[in-house]
Structures are given as C-alpha cells and as structure tokens.
Amino acid sequence: MGLTYFKRFRMEFDLTGPMMDEVVTPSGYELVPFSDDLLRDHATAKYRSFREELDANVFPCLARRDGCLSLMREITGRISFVPEATWLVHYRPARSTRAEPVGTIQGLQLEGWGAIQNVGVSPEHRGRGLGSILLAHAAKGFRAAGLTQMHLEVTTDNTAAVRLYERLGFRRTQVVYKAAEVAGV
Q: What's residue 185's pLDDT?
C-alpha cells in the first residue's frame, strides 16, 4: 500500500441564476425522492455506479456493498443532511415488477453551501440523461432549503463527469488533492 494523491476539481453552481434545464425521465425509469426506507437502494445504486471506477480508489468504501451502505448511513445521519436534495433513480425492465436502483445523489448543507455527494449512475444506464436529472433535482432541493450556491468535487481524470458538470453550468473554482492508500503503489 502506498499513499497517492488524486487531483480533483471543486466545481460550483449558482442557485440564484437560471436553473438547469428540465430533462424528461426516460421510459422505464422513475425518479424517487429520499425516504429512510430506501437507504439500501441508494447504497446499491452507489455500489453499482462506483465499484469499478477511479473514485473507488479515491474512496475505497465505494468498491464494497457494505461500504456504500455505511456511507449512506453516515451521510443521512448528519445534521447537515438535506433530504430534498437526495434522489434515487429506479429502472423497471419491461415485464418486471421489481425496480432496480441505478442512480443516486445525496446532498448536505456545509458552511451555507449545498454540497453534492456521490452523483452516481450505473454504467449500463449512462448516456440517458439520468445524471442531469439527478443534479437538476438536487439543485431544486437545495434552493427549496434556502441555499444559494452548491458545489461538488470531481476527480480530474473523470472527464465525462467534468464535461457533464460544465455543460450544466458548473464552473471550476479550485483544484484540491485527496490522499488515498492505493494497493501496488
């Protein structure tokens, strides 16, 4: 194990200006507001979204199902948790009665800012606008909670996510480094 530093962008969005365009939820998908009984679904969506991604190196808990559930409990247990900015995407395959959790986003209020936590969409469901839908609803939730700014951090090598955030109106404001223990370094 060795210590590695991952370069990340802090990206910000002004909630007092024009909001993100509303994207229609594709057929077969359902956007679900936060409730305590959905913690396991959020954790499953988080695990499916991050388990094989770079961020699982930065945040090792994302590579484990139990780690994702523990993280969800930690986030939702904070006094700064913003349920209105926390959403889940379910996918219901044709002729199925069971919905699969395939996308998640969580929000916290930190130092007067809306802080996005872990925007995640399962790889097989990407490219359908689900990330945009989650971010737009989180932004509305932060605004409803009286916040005027929101931010997130993204690993700079995650170029698809950086492009998405910039397309939605986020701007890069700072470079930060996250230290992480990585096997084989």
A: 47
